[in-house]
Request: fold
Amino acid sequence: MAEMKSMFREVLPKQDIGQLSVEDVTTMVLCKPKLLPLKSLTLEKLEKMQQAAQDTIRQQEMAEKEQ
Amino acid sequence: AAMGPDMEPLLLAWSYFRRRKFQLCADLCTQMLEKSPYDQAAWILKARALTEMVYIDEIDVDQEGIAEMILDENAIAQVPRPGTSLKLPVTNQTGGPSQAIRPITQAGRPITGFLRPSTQSGRPGTMEQAIRTPRTAYTARPITSSGRFVRMGTASMLTSPDGPFINLSRLNLTKYSQKPKLAKALFEYIFHHENDIKTALDLAALSTEHSQYKDWWWKVQIGKCYYRLGMYREAEKQFKSALKQQEMVDTFLYLAKVYISLDQPVTALTLYKQGLDKFPGEVTLLCGIARIYEEMNNIPSATEYYKEVLKQDNTHVEAIACIGSNHFYSDQPEVALRFYRRLLQMGVYNCQLFNNLGLCCFYAQQYDMTLTSFERALSLAENEEETADVWYNLGHVAVGIGDTNLAHQCFRLALVNNNHHAEAYNNLAVLEMRKGHVEQARALLQTASSLAPHMYEPHFNFATVSDKIGDLQRSYVAAQKSEAAFPDHVDTQHLIKQLKQHFAML
Reply:
Protein backbone atom coordinates (compact mmCIF):
# COMPACT_ATOMS: atom_id res chain seq x y z
CA MET A 1 0.00 0.00 0.00
CA ALA A 2 2.83 2.34 0.88
CA GLU A 3 4.32 1.85 -2.60
CA MET A 4 1.00 2.51 -4.24
CA LYS A 5 0.66 5.79 -2.40
CA SER A 6 4.03 7.02 -3.50
CA MET A 7 3.16 6.36 -7.13
CA PHE A 8 0.46 8.99 -7.19
CA ARG A 9 1.13 12.51 -6.13
CA GLU A 10 -1.48 15.08 -5.55
CA VAL A 11 -1.49 18.02 -7.91
CA LEU A 12 -2.48 21.40 -6.63
CA PRO A 13 -3.06 24.16 -9.16
CA LYS A 14 -0.81 27.14 -8.61
CA GLN A 15 -3.34 29.68 -9.82
CA ASP A 16 -6.98 30.12 -8.75
CA ILE A 17 -6.37 28.22 -5.58
CA GLY A 18 -9.46 27.69 -3.54
CA GLN A 19 -12.00 28.06 -6.32
CA LEU A 20 -14.05 25.11 -5.25
CA SER A 21 -17.43 26.61 -5.91
CA VAL A 22 -18.98 28.72 -8.61
CA GLU A 23 -21.39 31.43 -7.62
CA ASP A 24 -24.91 30.36 -8.38
CA VAL A 25 -26.64 32.38 -11.03
CA THR A 26 -30.37 32.48 -10.41
CA THR A 27 -32.14 30.95 -13.34
CA MET A 28 -35.83 30.88 -14.03
CA VAL A 29 -37.73 27.75 -13.09
CA LEU A 30 -40.06 25.71 -15.21
CA CYS A 31 -43.24 24.30 -13.78
CA LYS A 32 -42.86 20.58 -13.43
CA PRO A 33 -44.38 17.88 -15.62
CA LYS A 34 -47.81 16.92 -14.41
CA LEU A 35 -48.90 13.33 -13.98
CA LEU A 36 -52.63 13.28 -14.53
CA PRO A 37 -54.66 11.71 -11.74
CA LEU A 38 -56.87 8.80 -12.75
CA LYS A 39 -60.56 9.25 -12.09
CA SER A 40 -62.56 7.13 -9.69
CA LEU A 41 -65.59 5.26 -10.99
CA THR A 42 -67.91 7.42 -8.89
CA LEU A 43 -66.44 10.57 -10.34
CA GLU A 44 -66.77 9.25 -13.88
CA LYS A 45 -70.38 8.31 -13.26
CA LEU A 46 -71.11 11.71 -11.72
CA GLU A 47 -69.59 13.49 -14.69
CA LYS A 48 -71.48 11.32 -17.16
CA MET A 49 -74.75 11.95 -15.34
CA GLN A 50 -74.16 15.67 -15.24
CA GLN A 51 -73.26 15.73 -18.91
CA ALA A 52 -76.40 13.75 -19.77
CA ALA A 53 -78.53 16.08 -17.64
CA GLN A 54 -77.07 19.16 -19.31
CA ASP A 55 -77.67 17.65 -22.74
CA THR A 56 -81.31 16.96 -21.90
CA ILE A 57 -81.81 20.48 -20.63
CA ARG A 58 -80.17 21.94 -23.72
CA GLN A 59 -82.30 19.79 -26.02
CA GLN A 60 -85.47 20.85 -24.24
CA GLU A 61 -84.47 24.49 -24.45
CA MET A 62 -83.78 24.11 -28.16
CA ALA A 63 -87.15 22.45 -28.63
CA GLU A 64 -88.88 25.28 -26.76
CA LYS A 65 -87.15 27.89 -28.90
CA GLU A 66 -88.25 26.17 -32.09
CA GLN A 67 -91.86 26.21 -31.05
CA ALA B 1 -86.45 -10.52 -26.90
CA ALA B 2 -88.40 -13.13 -28.83
CA MET B 3 -89.52 -14.64 -25.56
CA GLY B 4 -90.46 -11.24 -24.18
CA PRO B 5 -94.18 -10.99 -24.98
CA ASP B 6 -94.93 -14.46 -23.62
CA MET B 7 -93.29 -13.91 -20.28
CA GLU B 8 -95.12 -12.79 -17.18
CA PRO B 9 -94.45 -8.99 -17.24
CA LEU B 10 -93.42 -8.73 -13.60
CA LEU B 11 -90.95 -11.59 -13.96
CA LEU B 12 -89.57 -10.01 -17.10
CA ALA B 13 -89.24 -6.64 -15.36
CA TRP B 14 -87.49 -8.31 -12.47
CA SER B 15 -85.15 -10.03 -14.87
CA TYR B 16 -84.35 -6.70 -16.56
CA PHE B 17 -83.61 -5.27 -13.15
CA ARG B 18 -81.20 -8.04 -12.27
CA ARG B 19 -79.44 -7.64 -15.61
CA ARG B 20 -79.11 -3.93 -14.83
CA LYS B 21 -81.29 -2.88 -17.78
CA PHE B 22 -82.97 -0.29 -15.65
CA GLN B 23 -84.59 1.78 -18.37
CA LEU B 24 -86.31 -1.28 -19.85
CA CYS B 25 -87.36 -2.37 -16.38
CA ALA B 26 -88.83 1.04 -15.56
CA ASP B 27 -90.66 1.24 -18.89
CA LEU B 28 -92.22 -2.17 -18.39
CA CYS B 29 -93.28 -1.27 -14.86
CA THR B 30 -94.88 1.92 -16.20
CA GLN B 31 -96.97 -0.18 -18.59
CA MET B 32 -97.99 -2.49 -15.77
CA LEU B 33 -98.91 0.45 -13.56
CA GLU B 34 -101.09 1.92 -16.31
CA LYS B 35 -103.15 -1.27 -16.26
CA SER B 36 -103.28 -1.67 -12.50
CA PRO B 37 -102.22 1.51 -10.66
CA TYR B 38 -102.23 -0.17 -7.24
CA ASP B 39 -99.74 -2.94 -8.10
CA GLN B 40 -97.29 -2.51 -5.23
CA ALA B 41 -94.73 -4.92 -6.66
CA ALA B 42 -94.49 -3.03 -9.95
CA TRP B 43 -94.48 0.29 -8.12
CA ILE B 44 -91.60 -0.55 -5.85
CA LEU B 45 -89.64 -2.26 -8.63
CA LYS B 46 -89.95 0.88 -10.72
CA ALA B 47 -88.77 3.00 -7.80
CA ARG B 48 -85.77 0.72 -7.36
CA ALA B 49 -84.93 0.79 -11.06
CA LEU B 50 -85.08 4.59 -11.12
CA THR B 51 -82.91 4.72 -8.00
CA GLU B 52 -80.29 2.41 -9.49
CA MET B 53 -80.06 4.58 -12.59
CA VAL B 54 -78.79 7.57 -10.63
CA TYR B 55 -77.25 5.69 -7.71
CA ILE B 56 -73.92 6.99 -6.49
CA ASP B 57 -72.09 5.48 -3.59
CA GLU B 58 -72.85 7.92 -0.80
CA ILE B 59 -69.51 7.21 0.88
CA ASP B 60 -67.69 8.64 -2.11
CA VAL B 61 -69.90 11.67 -2.55
CA ASP B 62 -68.47 14.64 -0.79
CA GLN B 63 -68.35 17.87 -2.59
CA GLU B 64 -68.26 20.89 -0.44
CA GLY B 65 -69.63 24.12 -1.76
CA ILE B 66 -68.05 27.48 -1.13
CA ALA B 67 -70.70 28.30 1.48
CA GLU B 68 -70.06 25.16 3.50
CA MET B 69 -66.35 25.72 3.49
CA ILE B 70 -66.24 29.36 4.36
CA LEU B 71 -69.16 29.49 6.75
CA ASP B 72 -67.99 26.31 8.43
CA GLU B 73 -68.47 26.62 12.16
CA ASN B 74 -67.94 22.98 12.93
CA ALA B 75 -64.19 23.06 13.18
CA ILE B 76 -63.19 22.79 16.79
CA ALA B 77 -60.10 24.91 16.73
CA GLN B 78 -59.73 27.98 14.56
CA VAL B 79 -55.98 27.72 14.81
CA PRO B 80 -55.33 23.99 15.02
CA ARG B 81 -52.02 22.53 16.06
CA PRO B 82 -49.91 21.25 13.17
CA GLY B 83 -50.71 17.68 12.21
CA THR B 84 -54.26 17.77 13.56
CA SER B 85 -56.05 19.49 10.72
CA LEU B 86 -56.66 18.92 7.05
CA LYS B 87 -57.01 22.62 6.45
CA LEU B 88 -53.54 23.94 6.76
CA PRO B 89 -51.13 22.74 4.17
CA VAL B 90 -48.61 21.02 6.37
CA THR B 91 -45.05 21.95 5.69
CA ASN B 92 -42.95 19.13 4.48
CA GLN B 93 -41.65 17.53 7.66
CA THR B 94 -42.06 13.94 6.67
CA GLY B 95 -39.53 13.62 3.90
CA GLY B 96 -41.87 13.53 0.94
CA PRO B 97 -40.82 15.17 -2.31
CA SER B 98 -40.53 18.93 -2.06
CA GLN B 99 -42.64 21.43 -3.89
CA ALA B 100 -39.78 22.07 -6.25
CA ILE B 101 -40.29 18.59 -7.68
CA ARG B 102 -43.89 17.68 -7.10
CA PRO B 103 -46.52 20.20 -8.17
CA ILE B 104 -49.11 21.22 -5.60
CA THR B 105 -52.79 21.89 -5.81
CA GLN B 106 -54.39 25.18 -5.01
CA ALA B 107 -54.92 23.98 -1.45
CA GLY B 108 -51.21 23.51 -0.98
CA ARG B 109 -51.12 19.72 -1.13
CA PRO B 110 -49.01 17.66 -3.48
CA ILE B 111 -51.03 16.55 -6.48
CA THR B 112 -52.45 13.11 -6.02
CA GLY B 113 -52.40 10.11 -8.29
CA PHE B 114 -56.13 9.57 -8.11
CA LEU B 115 -59.14 11.81 -8.40
CA ARG B 116 -62.29 11.27 -6.32
CA PRO B 117 -65.27 13.58 -6.01
CA SER B 118 -63.88 15.00 -2.78
CA THR B 119 -60.33 15.49 -4.03
CA GLN B 120 -61.48 17.37 -7.06
CA SER B 121 -60.11 20.72 -6.11
CA GLY B 122 -59.19 20.81 -2.47
CA ARG B 123 -60.25 23.39 0.06
CA PRO B 124 -59.24 26.93 -0.55
CA GLY B 125 -57.94 28.46 2.64
CA THR B 126 -59.68 31.81 2.61
CA MET B 127 -62.78 33.40 1.21
CA GLU B 128 -60.64 35.51 -1.06
CA GLN B 129 -58.90 32.47 -2.47
CA ALA B 130 -62.22 30.69 -2.98
CA ILE B 131 -63.70 33.53 -4.93
CA ARG B 132 -60.63 34.55 -6.85
CA THR B 133 -59.90 31.04 -8.05
CA PRO B 134 -60.52 31.02 -11.77
CA ARG B 135 -63.76 29.22 -12.43
CA THR B 136 -62.56 26.76 -14.96
CA ALA B 137 -64.10 23.35 -15.43
CA TYR B 138 -61.50 21.91 -13.11
CA THR B 139 -61.87 24.22 -10.19
CA ALA B 140 -65.42 25.47 -10.38
CA ARG B 141 -67.33 24.42 -7.34
CA PRO B 142 -70.98 25.02 -6.65
CA ILE B 143 -71.91 27.80 -4.24
CA THR B 144 -73.52 25.23 -1.97
CA SER B 145 -73.10 21.49 -2.09
CA SER B 146 -76.80 20.83 -2.46
CA GLY B 147 -76.73 22.75 -5.75
CA ARG B 148 -75.31 19.88 -7.71
CA PHE B 149 -77.81 17.39 -6.34
CA VAL B 150 -80.74 19.67 -7.03
CA ARG B 151 -79.57 20.03 -10.62
CA MET B 152 -79.36 16.29 -11.04
CA GLY B 153 -82.75 15.78 -9.43
CA THR B 154 -84.46 18.19 -11.78
CA ALA B 155 -82.69 16.62 -14.70
CA SER B 156 -84.01 13.20 -13.84
CA MET B 157 -87.49 14.66 -13.72
CA LEU B 158 -87.06 16.36 -17.05
CA THR B 159 -86.75 13.02 -18.73
CA SER B 160 -90.25 11.97 -17.68
CA PRO B 161 -92.75 14.22 -19.45
CA ASP B 162 -95.68 13.28 -17.18
CA GLY B 163 -94.01 14.75 -14.14
CA PRO B 164 -92.40 12.87 -11.29
CA PHE B 165 -93.12 9.19 -10.77
CA ILE B 166 -93.99 9.56 -7.10
CA ASN B 167 -95.53 12.77 -5.84
CA LEU B 168 -93.71 13.12 -2.57
CA SER B 169 -95.93 15.79 -1.08
CA ARG B 170 -98.95 13.52 -1.36
CA LEU B 171 -97.24 10.51 0.16
CA ASN B 172 -98.55 9.25 3.49
CA LEU B 173 -95.20 8.57 5.12
CA THR B 174 -96.68 7.07 8.30
CA LYS B 175 -98.45 4.42 6.24
CA TYR B 176 -95.28 3.43 4.43
CA SER B 177 -93.18 3.38 7.58
CA GLN B 178 -95.41 0.54 8.81
CA LYS B 179 -94.22 -1.63 5.92
CA PRO B 180 -90.47 -1.96 6.44
CA LYS B 181 -89.71 -3.61 3.10
CA LEU B 182 -91.47 -0.96 1.06
CA ALA B 183 -90.12 1.78 3.27
CA LYS B 184 -86.48 0.89 2.64
CA ALA B 185 -86.79 0.99 -1.13
CA LEU B 186 -88.92 4.12 -0.94
CA PHE B 187 -86.33 5.80 1.26
CA GLU B 188 -83.56 5.09 -1.23
CA TYR B 189 -85.73 6.45 -4.04
CA ILE B 190 -86.40 9.67 -2.15
CA PHE B 191 -82.77 10.02 -1.06
CA HIS B 192 -80.95 9.16 -4.28
CA HIS B 193 -83.42 9.92 -7.04
CA GLU B 194 -85.40 12.86 -5.73
CA ASN B 195 -82.66 14.24 -3.49
CA ASP B 196 -85.37 15.43 -1.12
CA ILE B 197 -83.37 14.96 2.04
CA LYS B 198 -85.95 16.44 4.37
CA THR B 199 -88.71 14.05 3.29
CA ALA B 200 -86.25 11.18 3.36
CA LEU B 201 -85.35 12.11 6.92
CA ASP B 202 -89.03 12.23 7.92
CA LEU B 203 -89.59 8.75 6.51
CA ALA B 204 -86.48 7.40 8.20
CA ALA B 205 -87.47 8.93 11.54
CA LEU B 206 -90.94 7.37 11.38
CA SER B 207 -89.50 4.03 10.34
CA THR B 208 -86.92 3.86 13.08
CA GLU B 209 -89.67 4.64 15.56
CA HIS B 210 -91.76 1.83 14.09
CA SER B 211 -88.85 -0.58 14.46
CA GLN B 212 -88.58 0.56 18.11
CA TYR B 213 -85.06 1.84 17.44
CA LYS B 214 -83.85 -1.72 16.90
CA ASP B 215 -82.93 -1.53 13.24
CA TRP B 216 -79.39 -0.27 12.72
CA TRP B 217 -80.07 0.27 9.00
CA TRP B 218 -82.49 3.12 9.68
CA LYS B 219 -80.05 4.76 12.07
CA VAL B 220 -77.41 4.79 9.33
CA GLN B 221 -79.92 6.32 6.93
CA ILE B 222 -80.86 9.04 9.42
CA GLY B 223 -77.15 9.70 9.85
CA LYS B 224 -76.74 10.02 6.08
CA CYS B 225 -79.58 12.55 5.96
CA TYR B 226 -78.11 14.59 8.82
CA TYR B 227 -74.75 14.52 7.07
CA ARG B 228 -76.22 15.85 3.85
CA LEU B 229 -77.99 18.57 5.83
CA GLY B 230 -74.66 19.53 7.39
CA MET B 231 -75.67 18.48 10.92
CA TYR B 232 -72.51 16.56 11.62
CA ARG B 233 -72.84 16.13 15.38
CA GLU B 234 -76.34 14.62 15.01
CA ALA B 235 -75.05 12.36 12.23
CA GLU B 236 -72.22 11.23 14.50
CA LYS B 237 -74.71 10.19 17.22
CA GLN B 238 -76.77 8.12 14.79
CA PHE B 239 -73.77 6.32 13.32
CA LYS B 240 -72.33 5.58 16.75
CA SER B 241 -75.64 4.16 17.91
CA ALA B 242 -75.86 2.04 14.75
CA LEU B 243 -72.35 0.73 15.35
CA LYS B 244 -73.31 -0.31 18.87
CA GLN B 245 -76.10 -2.48 17.46
CA GLN B 246 -74.30 -3.91 14.48
CA GLU B 247 -70.75 -3.31 13.38
CA MET B 248 -70.64 -2.72 9.65
CA VAL B 249 -67.80 -1.53 7.44
CA ASP B 250 -70.03 1.08 5.80
CA THR B 251 -70.99 2.62 9.11
CA PHE B 252 -67.33 3.01 10.04
CA LEU B 253 -66.75 4.74 6.71
CA TYR B 254 -69.69 7.09 7.15
CA LEU B 255 -68.63 8.00 10.67
CA ALA B 256 -65.09 8.67 9.49
CA LYS B 257 -66.52 10.92 6.81
CA VAL B 258 -68.25 12.92 9.53
CA TYR B 259 -64.95 13.37 11.37
CA ILE B 260 -63.21 14.44 8.20
CA SER B 261 -65.91 17.05 7.63
CA LEU B 262 -65.40 18.20 11.20
CA ASP B 263 -61.70 18.53 10.36
CA GLN B 264 -60.62 15.89 12.87
CA PRO B 265 -58.34 13.66 10.83
CA VAL B 266 -56.71 12.14 13.87
CA THR B 267 -60.07 10.95 15.26
CA ALA B 268 -60.92 9.57 11.82
CA LEU B 269 -57.62 7.67 11.76
CA THR B 270 -58.30 6.15 15.18
CA LEU B 271 -61.77 5.14 14.04
CA TYR B 272 -60.45 3.47 10.89
CA LYS B 273 -57.97 1.55 13.03
CA GLN B 274 -60.78 0.45 15.35
CA GLY B 275 -62.64 -0.72 12.28
CA LEU B 276 -59.59 -2.67 11.18
CA ASP B 277 -59.58 -4.50 14.52
CA LYS B 278 -63.08 -5.76 13.73
CA PHE B 279 -62.54 -6.27 10.02
CA PRO B 280 -58.86 -7.08 9.57
CA GLY B 281 -57.49 -6.29 6.13
CA GLU B 282 -60.61 -4.46 4.97
CA VAL B 283 -59.53 -2.58 1.86
CA THR B 284 -61.87 0.42 2.17
CA LEU B 285 -60.69 1.09 5.72
CA LEU B 286 -57.02 0.79 4.77
CA CYS B 287 -57.61 3.05 1.83
CA GLY B 288 -59.34 5.60 4.06
CA ILE B 289 -56.25 5.76 6.27
CA ALA B 290 -53.99 6.18 3.27
CA ARG B 291 -56.14 9.03 1.91
CA ILE B 292 -55.99 10.93 5.19
CA TYR B 293 -52.22 10.58 5.41
CA GLU B 294 -51.93 11.76 1.84
CA GLU B 295 -54.12 14.78 2.53
CA MET B 296 -52.01 15.59 5.56
CA ASN B 297 -48.97 15.52 3.31
CA ASN B 298 -47.52 12.50 5.08
CA ILE B 299 -46.54 10.69 1.91
CA PRO B 300 -44.40 7.89 3.45
CA SER B 301 -47.24 6.73 5.72
CA ALA B 302 -49.75 7.05 2.89
CA THR B 303 -47.59 4.86 0.67
CA GLU B 304 -47.24 2.32 3.45
CA TYR B 305 -51.01 1.97 3.71
CA TYR B 306 -51.53 1.93 -0.05
CA LYS B 307 -49.07 -0.96 -0.15
CA GLU B 308 -51.13 -2.66 2.53
CA VAL B 309 -54.18 -2.17 0.30
CA LEU B 310 -52.37 -3.82 -2.59
CA LYS B 311 -51.50 -6.82 -0.41
CA GLN B 312 -55.23 -7.40 0.04
CA ASP B 313 -56.38 -6.41 -3.42
CA ASN B 314 -53.72 -6.25 -6.10
CA THR B 315 -56.04 -4.69 -8.65
CA HIS B 316 -56.87 -1.61 -6.60
CA VAL B 317 -56.60 1.23 -9.12
CA GLU B 318 -56.37 4.03 -6.57
CA ALA B 319 -53.52 2.40 -4.65
CA ILE B 320 -51.56 1.58 -7.80
CA ALA B 321 -52.00 5.09 -9.20
CA CYS B 322 -50.99 6.78 -5.94
CA ILE B 323 -47.91 4.63 -5.40
CA GLY B 324 -46.99 5.14 -9.05
CA SER B 325 -47.15 8.90 -8.83
CA ASN B 326 -45.18 8.88 -5.57
CA HIS B 327 -42.40 6.96 -7.26
CA PHE B 328 -42.44 9.32 -10.23
CA TYR B 329 -42.05 12.36 -8.05
CA SER B 330 -39.35 10.79 -5.90
CA ASP B 331 -37.13 10.37 -8.93
CA GLN B 332 -37.91 6.76 -9.75
CA PRO B 333 -39.75 6.98 -13.06
CA GLU B 334 -38.82 3.44 -14.02
CA VAL B 335 -40.55 2.07 -10.93
CA ALA B 336 -43.55 4.30 -11.60
CA LEU B 337 -43.62 2.94 -15.12
CA ARG B 338 -44.12 -0.59 -13.78
CA PHE B 339 -47.15 0.52 -11.76
CA TYR B 340 -48.75 2.33 -14.67
CA ARG B 341 -48.03 -0.62 -16.96
CA ARG B 342 -49.84 -2.80 -14.47
CA LEU B 343 -52.89 -0.53 -14.80
CA LEU B 344 -52.70 -0.90 -18.56
CA GLN B 345 -52.61 -4.67 -18.20
CA MET B 346 -55.68 -4.48 -16.00
CA GLY B 347 -57.60 -2.81 -18.78
CA VAL B 348 -57.54 0.84 -17.76
CA TYR B 349 -57.50 2.66 -21.08
CA ASN B 350 -57.75 6.41 -20.98
CA CYS B 351 -56.01 9.67 -21.69
CA GLN B 352 -54.63 10.09 -18.17
CA LEU B 353 -52.94 6.69 -18.10
CA PHE B 354 -51.26 7.11 -21.49
CA ASN B 355 -50.09 10.58 -20.55
CA ASN B 356 -48.50 9.18 -17.38
CA LEU B 357 -46.98 6.28 -19.30
CA GLY B 358 -45.51 8.75 -21.77
CA LEU B 359 -43.94 10.85 -19.03
CA CYS B 360 -42.57 7.82 -17.19
CA CYS B 361 -41.14 6.40 -20.40
CA PHE B 362 -39.41 9.67 -21.23
CA TYR B 363 -37.84 10.13 -17.82
CA ALA B 364 -36.93 6.44 -17.62
CA GLN B 365 -35.16 6.86 -20.98
CA GLN B 366 -37.42 4.51 -22.87
CA TYR B 367 -37.67 6.91 -25.77
CA ASP B 368 -39.24 4.48 -28.23
CA MET B 369 -42.52 4.43 -26.33
CA THR B 370 -42.71 8.09 -25.33
CA LEU B 371 -44.22 9.76 -28.35
CA THR B 372 -46.57 6.89 -29.20
CA SER B 373 -47.96 7.04 -25.66
CA PHE B 374 -48.57 10.75 -25.93
CA GLU B 375 -50.19 10.31 -29.35
CA ARG B 376 -52.54 7.76 -27.84
CA ALA B 377 -53.25 10.08 -24.93
CA LEU B 378 -54.15 12.90 -27.31
CA SER B 379 -56.49 10.69 -29.27
CA LEU B 380 -58.20 9.50 -26.08
CA ALA B 381 -58.67 12.94 -24.52
CA GLU B 382 -62.28 13.58 -23.70
CA ASN B 383 -62.21 17.34 -23.30
CA GLU B 384 -60.03 20.31 -24.01
CA GLU B 385 -58.56 20.46 -20.50
CA GLU B 386 -57.18 16.95 -20.91
CA THR B 387 -55.76 17.77 -24.34
CA ALA B 388 -54.13 20.86 -22.86
CA ASP B 389 -52.45 18.85 -20.12
CA VAL B 390 -51.06 16.34 -22.62
CA TRP B 391 -49.64 19.12 -24.80
CA TYR B 392 -48.17 20.73 -21.69
CA ASN B 393 -46.36 17.52 -20.80
CA LEU B 394 -45.23 17.07 -24.39
CA GLY B 395 -43.70 20.51 -24.03
CA HIS B 396 -41.51 19.11 -21.25
CA VAL B 397 -40.36 16.30 -23.50
CA ALA B 398 -39.45 18.91 -26.11
CA VAL B 399 -37.54 20.94 -23.50
CA GLY B 400 -35.81 17.73 -22.45
CA ILE B 401 -34.52 16.98 -25.96
CA GLY B 402 -33.55 20.60 -26.42
CA ASP B 403 -36.03 21.40 -29.19
CA THR B 404 -37.16 24.84 -28.03
CA ASN B 405 -39.27 25.47 -31.11
CA LEU B 406 -41.27 22.33 -30.54
CA ALA B 407 -41.56 23.18 -26.84
CA HIS B 408 -42.83 26.63 -27.72
CA GLN B 409 -45.45 25.13 -30.00
CA CYS B 410 -46.51 22.55 -27.41
CA PHE B 411 -47.06 25.13 -24.67
CA ARG B 412 -48.93 27.33 -27.15
CA LEU B 413 -51.18 24.39 -28.03
CA ALA B 414 -51.79 23.77 -24.34
CA LEU B 415 -52.99 27.36 -24.07
CA VAL B 416 -55.15 27.08 -27.18
CA ASN B 417 -56.96 24.18 -25.56
CA ASN B 418 -57.15 25.64 -22.08
CA ASN B 419 -56.81 29.35 -21.70
CA HIS B 420 -56.36 29.02 -17.93
CA HIS B 421 -53.32 26.76 -17.99
CA ALA B 422 -51.07 28.69 -15.62
CA GLU B 423 -48.15 26.27 -15.85
CA ALA B 424 -48.04 26.60 -19.62
CA TYR B 425 -47.98 30.42 -19.32
CA ASN B 426 -45.06 30.17 -16.90
CA ASN B 427 -43.04 27.80 -19.06
CA LEU B 428 -43.73 29.83 -22.16
CA ALA B 429 -42.39 32.87 -20.30
CA VAL B 430 -39.17 31.01 -19.52
CA LEU B 431 -38.75 30.19 -23.20
CA GLU B 432 -39.48 33.79 -24.22
CA MET B 433 -36.89 34.97 -21.73
CA ARG B 434 -34.29 32.71 -23.30
CA LYS B 435 -34.98 34.46 -26.59
CA GLY B 436 -34.51 37.78 -24.81
CA HIS B 437 -38.15 38.91 -25.03
CA VAL B 438 -38.37 40.50 -21.61
CA GLU B 439 -41.68 42.31 -21.93
CA GLN B 440 -43.51 39.29 -23.34
CA ALA B 441 -42.09 37.11 -20.60
CA ARG B 442 -43.24 39.55 -17.92
CA ALA B 443 -46.75 39.70 -19.35
CA LEU B 444 -46.98 35.90 -19.47
CA LEU B 445 -45.70 35.60 -15.92
CA GLN B 446 -48.23 38.11 -14.67
CA THR B 447 -51.01 36.11 -16.27
CA ALA B 448 -49.66 32.91 -14.76
CA SER B 449 -49.41 34.33 -11.26
CA SER B 450 -52.91 35.78 -11.32
CA LEU B 451 -54.31 32.45 -12.56
CA ALA B 452 -52.51 30.36 -9.98
CA PRO B 453 -51.40 32.42 -6.96
CA HIS B 454 -50.60 29.17 -5.11
CA MET B 455 -47.69 28.30 -7.41
CA TYR B 456 -44.31 29.73 -6.51
CA GLU B 457 -42.76 29.47 -9.98
CA PRO B 458 -44.46 32.46 -11.68
CA HIS B 459 -43.80 34.70 -8.65
CA PHE B 460 -40.18 33.67 -8.44
CA ASN B 461 -39.61 34.03 -12.18
CA PHE B 462 -41.25 37.44 -12.19
CA ALA B 463 -39.01 38.46 -9.32
CA THR B 464 -35.92 37.24 -11.18
CA VAL B 465 -36.84 39.03 -14.41
CA SER B 466 -37.72 42.25 -12.60
CA ASP B 467 -34.46 42.06 -10.66
CA LYS B 468 -32.51 41.73 -13.91
CA ILE B 469 -34.06 44.80 -15.49
CA GLY B 470 -33.62 46.80 -12.31
CA ASP B 471 -37.22 46.98 -11.15
CA LEU B 472 -36.27 46.13 -7.59
CA GLN B 473 -39.53 47.14 -5.95
CA ARG B 474 -41.67 44.80 -8.09
CA SER B 475 -39.04 42.12 -7.75
CA TYR B 476 -39.24 42.32 -3.97
CA VAL B 477 -43.05 42.11 -3.92
CA ALA B 478 -43.04 39.09 -6.21
CA ALA B 479 -40.26 37.40 -4.26
CA GLN B 480 -42.27 37.73 -1.09
CA LYS B 481 -45.27 36.11 -2.77
CA SER B 482 -42.97 33.34 -3.90
CA GLU B 483 -41.71 32.88 -0.36
CA ALA B 484 -45.27 32.68 0.95
CA ALA B 485 -46.07 29.97 -1.58
CA PHE B 486 -42.89 27.97 -0.95
CA PRO B 487 -41.07 29.02 2.23
CA ASP B 488 -38.20 26.55 1.80
CA HIS B 489 -37.17 27.69 -1.68
CA VAL B 490 -33.50 28.55 -1.39
CA ASP B 491 -33.25 30.73 -4.51
CA THR B 492 -36.14 32.88 -3.34
CA GLN B 493 -34.45 33.38 0.01
CA HIS B 494 -31.22 34.38 -1.73
CA LEU B 495 -33.03 36.85 -3.91
CA ILE B 496 -34.82 38.43 -0.97
CA LYS B 497 -31.54 38.71 0.93
CA GLN B 498 -29.88 40.34 -2.06
CA LEU B 499 -32.73 42.79 -2.52
CA LYS B 500 -32.68 43.70 1.15
CA GLN B 501 -28.98 44.49 0.87
CA HIS B 502 -29.68 46.68 -2.15
CA PHE B 503 -32.41 48.56 -0.29
CA ALA B 504 -30.15 49.01 2.74
CA MET B 505 -27.48 50.62 0.57
CA LEU B 506 -29.88 53.22 -0.83
Q: What stands out?
A: Residues 120-126, 132-147 of chain B have pLDDT under 50 and may be disordered. The longest helix of chain B spans residues 384-400. Chain B has 26 helices and one strand.
